[in-house]
């Protein structure tokens, strides 16, 4: 049999696609490197987006007492900032699911970033209390949309997906760690609202990154730039949200996220007030919030190996049990330094939980609803960051801030119950 048929007729193709020693063509290697660089750029923009989300959540705690002083309001009234933020988060969640098929990834990310710029501009002006809290609603919509899109996007990256999701939320923790360090300084200055000028600067950078890197493109177009094929059946970005809302598993995961994020932000937001009123903490008490979020960041990175070794489903129960034990120490041991250390370790063990639930959702949910479903989970989780701190504020006004620790312990135990009923198998 003649071998001429096996010889390529296109000589130019032979020259360009010359194989290397390991059998891979030089063009393929170059393309892979280009895709990898582009992926790092995209991830960098999404990391900054989550950094800003963490910054936003970490700013509130050290400033709560100043809000009460400036606007002459009690714990319940000041907690309206959480209520209106919750309204924004839920509205953003529904908006995201409904308009994702129509607007697409790039446009929604830019829209969310723009809303944050508007919100911080209003807050930096120290407007009257009604206008000040309405800005939290605007910010809530922007955060919910960006959080949903960022989580959905990273969930579609099949290579080292668990690590990338863990890093994404570690960056959130880093933002929440940095914010109290700055907010604590502004909390005792005459121009306390200038803290939001710093937030405004970070939000402007976020908007510029969203416009220049994603350029209003759809998720499939952005994924194609880094070498990923279009997802099956047009992906969840093109699915109707009633298909998402009709699945019980999605709601179970979303409810877990709601309670988890509520616990996380309640600790970060109200622990400073608790330490000041119950443990006699001074001006430096705001740094305890940084300690909590510092532990959160460290846990999301340092415990990645344990998540893989022990299995994410099993290890989450252990983290919850350890967190409950540490909260009991904060509640029953009246020692300022000991409480601060315990709060940091609570953050360390709570930290991995959010990336775990996102990874679990990507494993068990059908690919054609994945982005929309994870968007709903992330957005409802953000609603928890507003709902539970408000409940905490109302209880603190009625029963005192000592009610914080029993409430947190009960919420953590409830999280374990929800996790126990979340399916552990692929859902069709």
From TrEMBL:
Molecular functions per Gene Ontology: transmembrane transporter activity
Pfam families recorded: MFS_1
Broad class of the protein's primary localization: membrane
Biased composition (Polar residues): 18-27
Keyword Mitochondrion carried by entry: no
Domain of life: Eukaryota
InterPro entries associated with the record: MFS, MFS_dom, MFS_trans_sf, MFS_Transporter
Residue span(s) of domain Major facilitator superfamily (MFS) profile: 42-428
TM stretches of this protein: 40-56, 76-97, 104-122, 128-145, 166-188, 194-214, 252-272, 284-303, 339-357, 369-391, 403-422
Location in the cell: Endomembrane system
UniProt-annotated stretches for the region Disordered: 1-27
UniProt topology in membrane: Multi-pass membrane protein
PANTHER family documented for this protein: BYPASS OF STOP CODON PROTEIN 6
Family listed: Belongs to the major facilitator superfamily.
Protein name, as recorded: MFS general substrate transporter
Species name: Cylindrobasidium torrendii FP15055 ss-10
């Amino acid at each position: 049999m003649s071998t001429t048929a096996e010889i390529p007729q296109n000589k130019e193709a032979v020259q360009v696609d010359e194989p290397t020693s390991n059998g891979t063509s030089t063009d393929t290697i170059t393309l892979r490197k280009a895709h990898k660089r582009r992926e790092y750029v995209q991830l960098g923009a999404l990391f900054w987006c989550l950094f800003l989300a963490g910054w936003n959540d970490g700013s509130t705690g050290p400033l709560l007492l100043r809000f009460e002083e400036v606007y002459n309001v009690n714990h319940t009234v000041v907690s309206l900032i959480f209520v209106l933020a919750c309204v924004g988060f839920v509205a953003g969640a529904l908006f995201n699911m409904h308009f994702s098929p129509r607007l697409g990834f790039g446009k929604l990310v830019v829209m969310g970033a723009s809303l944050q710029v508007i919100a911080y501009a209003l807050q930096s002006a120290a407007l009257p209390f009604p206008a000040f809290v309405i800005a939290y609603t605007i910010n809530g919509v922007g955060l919910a949309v960006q959080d949903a899109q960022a989580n959905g996007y990273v969930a579609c990256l099949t290579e080292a997906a668990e690590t990338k999701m863990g890093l994404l939320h570690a960056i959130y923790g880093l933002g929440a760690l940095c914010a109290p360090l700055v907010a604590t300084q502004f909390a005792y200055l005459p121009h306390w609202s200038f803290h939001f000028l710093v937030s405004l600067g970070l939000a402007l950078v976020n908007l510029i990154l969203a416009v220049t890197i994603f350029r209003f493109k759809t998720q499939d177009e952005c994924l194609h730039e880094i070498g990923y094929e279009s997802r099956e059946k047009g992906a969840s970005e093109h699915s109707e949200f009633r298909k998402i809302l009709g699945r019980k598993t999605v709601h179970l995961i979303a409810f877990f996220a709601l309670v988890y994020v509520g616990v996380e932000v309640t600790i970060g937001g109200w622990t400073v007030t608790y330490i000041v009123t119950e443990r006699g903490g001074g001006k430096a008490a705001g740094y305890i919030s940084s300690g909590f979020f510092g532990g959160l960041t460290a846990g999301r990175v340092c415990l990645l190996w344990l998540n893989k070794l022990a299995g994410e489903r099993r290890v989450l129960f252990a983290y919850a049990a350890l967190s409950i034990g540490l909260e009991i120490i904060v509640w029953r041991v009246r020692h300022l330094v000991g409480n601060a250390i315990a709060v940091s370790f609570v953050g360390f063990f709570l930290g991995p939980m959010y990336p775990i639930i996102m990874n679990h959702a990507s494993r068990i949910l059908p690919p054609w609803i994945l982005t929309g479903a994870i968007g709903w989970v992330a957005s409802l989780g953000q609603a928890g960051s507003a709902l539970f701190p408000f409940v905490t504020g109302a209880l603190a006004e009625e029963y005192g801030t000592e009610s914080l620790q029993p409430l947190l312990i009960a919420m953590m135990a409830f999280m374990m119950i929800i996790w126990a009923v979340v399916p552990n198998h692929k859902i069709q």
